[in-house]
């Protein structure tokens, strides 16, 4: 193919008609304007996260006062786990879910996988045996 001089001449020959057509083609390309991300558009309303007051009882000074719905504070988690451990027939998963605004499947997982520790104090007579 490259040995043929006619093909070589055709490859390197200028075609004036194609060159004039190519000169008429003009492509203008611009990037989209850069936007600064500063927390979103000002004209869109900000979604307010719905919160609820915590049920802390006498431990109120140890924890936060408000949590988003669907979440619980640390003191609440320990309280509800202990309540369920002491009175499982009263503090069922359904009652806990309703009381603390939680999903039932999350409460079931919580009760299954998180068990509060029990502190046991041994009588003085048995301490020496240990």
Automatic annotation (TrEMBL):
It holds the Pfam family UPF0240. GO terms for biological process: mitochondrial respiratory chain complex I assembly. InterPro entries: NDUFAF4. One of its GO terms (cellular component) is mitochondrion. Binds calmodulin. Interacts with NDUFAF3. Belongs to the NDUFAF4 family. This is NADH dehydrogenase [ubiquinone] 1 alpha subcomplex assembly factor 4. It comes from Pterocles gutturalis.
């Amino acid at each position: 193919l490259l040995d043929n001089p006619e093909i070589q001449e055709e490859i390197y020959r200028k075609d004036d008609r194609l060159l004039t057509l190519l000169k008429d083609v003009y492509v203008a390309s611009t990037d989209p304007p850069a936007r600064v991300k500063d927390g979103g558009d000002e004209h869109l309303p900000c979604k307010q996260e719905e919160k609820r007051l915590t049920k802390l009882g006498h431990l109120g000074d140890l924890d936060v006062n408000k949590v988003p719905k669907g979440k619980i504070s640390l003191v609440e988690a320990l309280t509800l786990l202990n309540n369920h451990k002491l009175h499982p027939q009263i503090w069922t998963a359904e009652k806990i879910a309703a009381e603390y605004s939680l999903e039932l499947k999350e409460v079931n997982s919580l009760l299954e996988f998180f068990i509060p520790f029990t502190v046991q104090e041994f009588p003085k007579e048995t301490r020496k045996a240990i």
